[in-house]
What we know:
By secondary structure, this protein is of the alpha/beta class. The protein has one domain (4-228): 3-Layer(aba) Sandwich (Rossmann fold), CATH 3.40.50.720. 48% of the residues lie in helices and 13% in strands. The protein is built from 7 helices and 6 strands, in the order βαβαβαβαβαβαα. Strands 3-2-1-4-5-6 form a 6-stranded parallel sheet, sandwiched between helices. Helix 5 (144-163) links the parallel strand 5 and strand 6. Helix 3 (57-71) runs parallel beside helix 4 and helix 4 packs parallel to helix 5.
Amino acid sequence: xxxxxxxxxxxxxxxxxxxxxLQKLGYAVFATCRKEADxxxxxxxxxxxxxxxxxxxxxxxxxLVWMLSQTGxxxxxxxxxxxxxxxxxxxxxxxxVLREQFETNVFGTQELTNLVIPYxxxxxxxxxxxxxxxxxFVAMSYRGAYNASKFAIEGLADTLRLELYESxxxxxxxxxxxxxxxxxxxxxxxxxxxxxxxxxAHKEVYAKTLKRLxxxxxxxxxxxxxxxx
Length: 229
């Protein structure tokens, strides 16, 4: 029987590449996205796909039920991949902006994990993979919200690994560097939406940030998403 894997954030980048790549390797892949249009696109490409938004508890329950109904209640792997980056100086991050970053990257991710753990405990087997980042252990200016969310995920994952010791459930962290994806495009949208550039002490730096985020082509040291497979 093929091993089953539930992957979040499969619309582009690492999630997209892993969903297709693991299916080719024989895994029973259950690919999820936040937007229904992306779900339909993945289905048209031959993936078993469903809507899952880690900021929507009911959608997480529905996605898990959808998967388990096809696997006889078994789940081998959860890949917590869905996330985004909120650029901006720490002093320019409003509480609601910081909370939004944590809702997706930390709170929702861990809620989904906690939904899956009882099934893995019952099986006495399973693997939970957290997609962190090099920014989960190294701070970088103007990445404070993302840094903090990934530091938090690493703390949760490392603690969970200790708590699941001898349960048969493995907890794994991966810490990629720059990967080809829509991450920069999505970060630009969040920057323009939430950061008041004109009234910031960092106005001059932000002008350079905008140029960087608006560049086409890959950032330095960027690898293809298949590097994670």
